[in-house]
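ARCHIVE CARD
Drawer: 12
Card no.: 0347
Subject: one protein chain, sequence and derived structure
Cross-reference: see card 0346
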Amino acid sequence: MPKFAANLSMMFTEHTFLDRFTAASNAGFTGVEFLFPYDFEAEEIHAALTKAGLKQALFNTPPGDWQAGERGMAAIPGRNQEFREFFEQALDYADVLQPDAIHVMAGNAAGKSAQATFIDNLSWAAEEAGDQQLVIEPINSRDMPGYFLNRSDQAVAILQTVGAPNLKLQFDMYHVQIMEGDLTRRLQKMIPFLGHVQVAGVPDRHEPDAGELNTIHLFETLDRLEYAGWVGCEYHPAGDTVEGLGWFRELMGKA
């Protein structure tokens, strides 16, 4: 089975954020991810990671004004300088937290100018990041209408245009199932580009074993494809987080 990272923005919300690290470790996770670290000092988060014995799998670049509906700005024409300042902030946090990947959020945009802006910003970011891996993620238009990047083929075309070895695909089974389906074949096609994988039940974004996905089959597919990265559990528990982890305990028992 793959290695799983708990998403602390959605899971273990029965605890304060910095206490979620220990809760995830106690539940058996070896890695964590979250949306944004920027409400805390990087050293505070690093201390929580170290205390819990966890690896930081991933976090996102700053989104801008989230409450106003902003979802990143890498593809928004005219905001290049703002994006680059925010990206430098993400790199500062990465220096401390040592994530396996940083998700570069595209933002709400459309058209050829957005495509060109995204490619330009990603090319700059990949060079600026050095050895730090970056990822881009197609997000479904139902949950995030107006987001620039929606489909896996669209993402791969951008990756191939940029051509940076440290820029990869973040493949969220939840988003890809809603937009495209055919997950087994898509994983087989996308494996050369995969930098991070996420999972949640479809359609309600609860536990992975709830809904229309055969996640056991998909996890076994990742094993057959020799995917060595993280699978981030980016879902909203239907109830208590630990009570809903039967799927995880069963998988770990089989590992």
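Annotation on reverse: The radius of gyration is 17 Å. The CA atoms of residues 84 and 125 lie 8 Å apart.
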